[in-house]
Write a structure and sequence with these properties.
ZNF265 like, 1 helix, alpha+beta, 3-stranded antiparallel beta sheet, 62 residues
Length: 62
C-alpha cells in the first residue's frame, strides 16, 4: 500500500517531527528550545525524537 506524500508529511508532523526532553521525556514541538514542564526545571537539554525503524515484511519460504 502506497501513501501519498501529503499523508506522509502529515503523519511525520504529528508522530516524528518532535523534540524530547532528556530529563522528563516530555514530547515537545520541533522548534522547542526549553522544556515546558516545571518538574525538570524547564531544562534546555533536548534531543530529536528517534526515527522509527520499519522492518521488511516476513516472507514464508517453503
Amino acid at each position: 500500500m502506497a501513501f501519498t506524500p501529503t499523508l506522509v508529511a502529515l503523519a511525520e508532523k504529528y508522530r516524528s517531527d518532535k523534540m524530547v526532553c532528556r530529563k522528563c521525556y516530555a514530547r515537545l514541538p520541533k522548534g522547542a528550545t526549553n522544556c515546558r514542564k516545571s518538574k525538570c526545571g524547564h531544562s534546555n537539554d533536548l534531543r530529536k525524537k528517534k526515527e522509527i525503524k520499519c522492518h521488511p515484511p516476513k516472507i514464508a519460504y517453503k
